[in-house]
Design brief:
- This protein is an alpha+beta fold.
- It has one domain (4-157): Alpha-Beta Plaits.
- It has four helices and ten strands; from the N terminus they run E-H-E-E-E-H-E-E-E-H-E-E-H-E.
- It has helices at residues 16-28, 67-80, 122-131, 143-148, and strands at residues 4-11, 33-37, 41-43, 54-62, 95-101, 106-107, 112-113, 136-137, 141-142, 155-157.
- Strands 1, 2, 3, 4, 5 and 10 form a six-stranded antiparallel β-sheet that branches.
- Strand 6 (106-107) and strand 7 form a beta hairpin.
- The radius of gyration is 15 Å and the shape is globular.
């Protein structure tokens, strides 16, 4: 069975839901199977606080692609959607982070797996746990246990949904 790749999706500029939907469609076109996407959550920004709230979701899918190829695919989707990196951690139309790929670990200048900040980000863990109650962040532990140590009050589930192409 192919490993499961976990992506975190976020947007806080323009039509946030439309950007997230285009991110899902873009990722689905790169060799992913059995794609599942969480509900959409609204969250306050972290780190760089002087920006609008985000819409966030998590996408899980099976893939035989190498983690580096999955990262490239995510970056290409961001570029096609107009992602700008002018302000580090600043406002963005779309943000796609590769969080984990099965039990793979990487620590290169280009890719760190699992994502180094994922275990401390409720906006990643809450939607991930929704999709997979047994989720595990390699080298860090169970997602539910990581989330138990965080303040998740700023992660608000919305009634918005994202479609997965069939």
């Amino acid at each position: 069975m192919s490993p499961v790749a976990a992506f975190s999706l976020g947007s806080n500029l323009g039509d946030r839901l439309e950007f997230l939907q285009h991110a899902v469609f873009g990722l689905c076109g790169v060799g992913l199977a059995k794609v599942r996407v969480s509900a959409v959550y609204e969250t306050a920004p972290v780190d760089y606080l002087a920006q609008p709230d985000f819409l966030n979701a998590v996408l899980l899918a099976q893939s035989d692609l190498a983690p580096e190829d999955l990262l490239d695919a995510a970056l290409q989707v961001e570029t096609r959607l107009g992602r700008s990196r002018a302000v580090p951690k600043g406002p963005r139309c779309v943000d796609i982070d590769l969080i984990a790929v099965g039990d793979e670990t990487r620590d290169t200048p280009r890719l760190t797996l699992p994502h180094p900040r994922a275990g401390g980000r409720a906006f990643v863990l809450v939607p991930w746990l929704e999709l997979d109650p047994d989720a595990w962040l390699p080298g860090k532990g169970r997602v539910d246990e990581l989330l138990a140590g965080l303040d998740a009050t700023g992660v608000r589930r919305t009634s918005l949904e994202l479609a997965v192409p069939v």
